[in-house]
Amino acid sequence: LRSRGWQEVKEESGDWDFYWADVGWMREVFDHCYMEEHMRLNHFRNHYELTRKNLMAKNLKRLRKQIERDSGKIEAAKCDFFPTTFELPADYHIFVEEFKRSPNSTWIMKPIAKSQGKGIFLFRKLKDIMEWKKEDSWKIDGTKDDREPVENYVVQRYIDNPYLIGGRKFDIRCYVLVTSYIPLKVWLYRSGFGRMSNTRYSLDSIEDTYVHLTNVAIQKTAPDYDPEKGCKWSLIQLRMYLLAKHGPEAVETLFRGMDDIFIKSLQSTQKIMINDKHCFELYGYDILIDETLKPWLLEINASPSLTASNQTDYDLKFKLLHDVLTIIDMEGKLTGKEKRVGGFDLMWNDGPVHCEELSMEGAPNPPYTTNTMLGCFNNREDNLKKMMRSHGSSKS
After folding, report:
1. How does DSSP classify residue 352?
2. How many CA atoms lie within 13 A of 304 on its CB side?
């Protein structure tokens, strides 16, 4: 922000134009805060509808049912991009029925409101989760127990056939910027990264978090973690690797499937999200690819980490935030008709935005029209210079 000539002010002064708030501030202060026309804030009021694990699953299930009613099962099957999910303790008995239908499956437990891999574990036996049963926190007569209430979790069927690179599991962090829900306006950032496990993948050790959880906060505590090498691949590296292994058509299908995840997940909350012209949201999507090159949505983060683990990470996140601010356009430099701003491509503007350039140099024209270049060359500096020159000449 300072690099753009902005000045930092104290929160209590109330004399601010742009506020990068944490989710606690939104919960405690937003409803009591008057905002002038030009003010901008980095969260929507009920952002948690998409970023709390249990609510995300509930909204995606509702969208799938709605599509099935309106368009049939074949169309609804396109929403099959998140694992079978239950909330505990509320759905315990329904989960047990599903568990018994496939007794040899592996399941994963996640606290609904924690991040960075905290509290997550895998299991194969029901006895490992008995403490989350609903009866544990309520007496039979309906009066509340004196003990602390049981923490809510989601339990999901574990995707046990992940795509491996060098025998190691990874997931992908993508950045999606929403500037409006009504109408829905969505930007996708070209850059991102794959988060690699530091330990070779095996289902023989489901208790080993270094094998199964790719969160940097966990991996950097591994005994053999090398801070110089880190545990990340750039999205460009990852895409080039997949292209070399599987060819353009398979990779384009994979990345279009990821586009579908971004849009359908946002559509699942479009009608219930409190739209506000002062608000925008930068989401951090975590996507897992399985061995068949099918993308799976793991979770969506309302406050994706902007802490840099090395210089490359710093450069990515600095440029990401710079481009977010350019799109928010507090300085009033944009026309509102842009399809590309820095590293961001406009992928949805009350409908799909059409692609105007090839996805990869020398590759054939892809059979889609979505304006996204995820994992492709990010010549953002050239774009920003060209955009500012054209805007300057149009004003003169």
Report:
1. B
2. 21
Phi, psi (deg, nearest 5) at residue 86: -135, 155
What gap in Å lies between CA 132 and CA 120, rounded to an integer? Answer: 14
Distance CA 41, CA 50 (A): 18
165 φ, ψ (degrees, to nearest 5): -120, 120
Contact 66/303 with Cβ under 8 angstroms? no
Residues of the chain with pLDDT under 70: 1, 11-14, 31-32, 131-150, 227-230, 356-370, 390-396
Q: Which two tokens stand for residue 173?
A: 């962090």
DSSP output for 214-228: --HHHHTTSTT--TT
pLDDT digit string (tens) for 270-327? 999 999 898 999 999 999 999 999 999 999 998 888 888 788 888 999 999 999 999 9
Q: How many residues does the chain have?
A: 396
The H or E element that residue 117 is part of is none
* Cβ within 8 Å of residue 135, ≥6 positions away: none
- Return the pLDDT at 30: 73
The pTM of the full predicted model, rounded to 2 decimals, is 0.88
* Cα separation values, 123 from 92, 155, 208, 241, Å: 15, 10, 11, 32
pLDDT, position 190: 94
In this structure, are residues 59 and 339 in contact, taking their beta carbons and an 8 Å threshold? no
Distance CA 245, CA 243 (A): 5
Q: Which helix (H) or strand (E) holds 42?
A: none
Question: Residue 344 is inside which H or E element, if any?
Answer: strand 344-349
| pLDDT tens string 336-392 | 889 999 999 999 999 999 876 544 444 444 444 567 888 887 788 888 888 777 666
Element of type H or E holding 25 = helix 23-28
Tokens in use for 371?
């304006």
- Structure-token match 């270094």, residue found: 210
Query: Rounded to an integer, what distance in angstroms lies between the CA atom of residue 380 and that of residue 319?
Result: 9
Specify the pLDDT at position 14: 65
